[in-house]
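Predict the assembly for these two chains.
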Amino acid sequence: MDNFTVGVVVFPGSNCDRDVSWALEGCLDIKTKYLWHESSDLSDVDAIVLPGGFSYGDYLRCGAIARFSTLINALDEFVKSGKRVLGICNGFQILTESGFLPGALVANKNLNFICDDVELDIVSSKGGWFNNVDEKQTIKLPIAHGEGRYHCDSDTLKKLVDNELIALRYKNNPNGSSFDIAGITNEKGNVLGLMPHPERACDEIIGGTDGLFTLKSLITK
Amino acid sequence: MDQFAVKVFVRLRPSVLDPAGEATKSASIKLGAEGIKSLRIGKMIEVQIEGNGENEVREKIDLLCDRLFANTVIEDYEYSLEKL
């Protein structure tokens, strides 16, 4: 897999693009390529990360404007082909706004911007994004968001539970998310959206390595 | 071409908690306003648009509301339309 390349999308206002690239290249030796939001040619990347930040200033709603970018239009075919897409924080918001994942992310219950480490239960092994084959069912990842409260109607929640689409749940719900949801996948499992930042937990020197597995799993087996 | 002024109101659905509305309600009570039962915050979007008649303009506004102005997972919308 020497040539496996992960595309890291850059919107105006993205601010975790370089962190993601650093984590993939520096910690995991995985090649990356920045993809400007106006690009529609995804032929030379094998997986895509939508990084955190404030795409288009979060105007209207978080992720609402990004949805109409050239790149997101091209993403449909990429996802249908089975290639992997990881949306982190603002990337998760973009994935819900554009309909790749169900539900929506709204203002935190207490209106605070929360910047903290959180404990998360790994709920589903769908898509192989998390290491839950051994004993370690709980991981610790940083969160940093003002609009991270996951919301969906009861039918959607039932579908998420029945189809094992809930990937991560907060142990101590920080933001009021429905059913403590921190991350979900699509039905096929090749799209994961989560509010916590795995790229900020890839080196012991910055507090933990629980994010490594998820980034590593961008490489398709 | 006819000119129209459209006012779109976007509101959080009743089932969605509105923490900003709750905070504002609490401040309103601290200000001394009595009797507030509920306070919820939405958005108002003003659009000036031209088209061949009201029906054509309504079609455009419906599309904009449904795809862009509101996220129908969490929000409802309505609009009023005035011919200029």
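The helical segments of chain A are 17-28, 70-80, 90-97, 154-162, 212-216. The first strand of chain A starts at residue 5 and ends at 10.
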